[in-house]
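Researcher: Let's run the pair from yesterday's discussion. Sequence first, then tokens, for each.
Model: Starting with the first of the pair.
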Amino acid sequence: MDVLRAEVRKAVTLPYTWLTVMATLALTLLVALVLASRSVDSIMATDIDALLSVPDYLAYGVITLGVLAGSTEYQGGEIRTSLTAVPRRTSLLAAKYASLTVLAAGLSLVSMVVAVGVMGLAFEARVWPLVLRGAAYLVVVSLLSFPLGLLVRSTTGALTSALMLLVIAPLVLTPVAGWSQWLPTRLGDELLLTKTRPPGAAATMAALSAWVVVTSAAGAGRFCLDDS
């Protein structure tokens, strides 16, 4: 518990955390205003359809948060200080995951609530389950980004890799490759950013969980076993 408190305290005192939070909230306001306007003009089918598209934009913020959480300490050698303070790497890694989950969940929930308020949907009970599912989607995206930071150990390289896997690949491959439906963000969209339970939800959940487990195992393996 002391390690977790220390990781949370470290994260909330770093400038990159607040820059990411402020940028994500600013993006939330901009996207919500634009989508609300488009919904009024009937470009979006309904307000709910507009709300369900918000997490796709906010993903940039939580991807950045996850990548920075995994890579920043390697940039200036601060990781050595952390490992000196907590020599047991598994405990330190678990605390980092828990800290990121707390921060990503808080940022995601606040962002989704802000979007609901800006779009004038706060008094519609049907939107609140969608808010929770949208926040869950964003937390998963952040947890997929974090191991890439541990693996690459370069903020620029890890951020590029995360954007390629989680944002660009689905956009580019969806029209031309049927297997693109198994990419992690496509799975998250299908499972969480929907008004009703999709057919094959169990298989979708299993595939998305596999992505999280595999990327986490790869990141944890390098973190715990590689001293470079």
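Model: Moving on to the second of the pair.
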Amino acid sequence: MSNPAARNAIAQHVEDWISTAITVAPAGHIPLLFLSGAQGSGKSTALRQAAASLTAPVAIASLDDFYLTRTARAHLANTISPLLATRGPPGTHDLPLLRATLASLRAASDRSATSIPVFDKLADDRAASSAWRVFQGRPAAIVIEGWLMGALPDATAPSSAPLNEVEAQDPAGTWRRFQEEALAGGYARLWDEADGFFHILAPGFDTVLGWRLEQEASLWQARGTPMPEDRRAWAARFIQYYERITRRMLEGGRRPGTDLLIDGNRCGLPPPP
């Protein structure tokens, strides 16, 4: 199980990072910050705790809440690759919606109410707008967290040998090429707008499955229902969609920023010598 004290330790690092960005920002400028971390690394919890501890108003959101709708992903699956029906990889996010939300937050006044989308992961679709979160006022900073924030593209990925069973279903590299082109395009342009990156670095990809299972169990617990046994197999396969780029980011394929190494219990580690 996760360690609340360790989560708090991560949150303190994130809080300091946000606070510094606000302090050094030019007058009138709202810093845009991106927080990355593998699935289940504790980034969402750390960000919520950090934002709650700051006296300045900080607008936070998850890249996950900007997934394309199920219908939009079905269209990609039918026209490009069946693997694109599964949310998560580059190209399955609604970047125009994200940009519109960022623009609204940047233009907000002290009296504004800005809607922020919500994605229902168990329904695998965007929630109705009536269920979206609302940020009140003008933010001192905007922080978006997500597993791939700052990920760099790799043009050789489409022709590389498959890493797992999911990639084996992409023998021509069509799905991987679509992701790399997305990373080199819309995502790169989004990264260019950042005022800073913070990367929570897992000890290795093998740790991610255990974290993802904890995350899945929490989603079901929130609904008052035990996690079905078949969801374990589902989670093990689901993280294969993320494996290549997660490994790349852990190996240095990410935009430069503040790095926090953590262990399997999500405790911060000293930097390597």
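Researcher: Give me one sentence on the second I can quote.
Model: The chain has one domain: 4-261.
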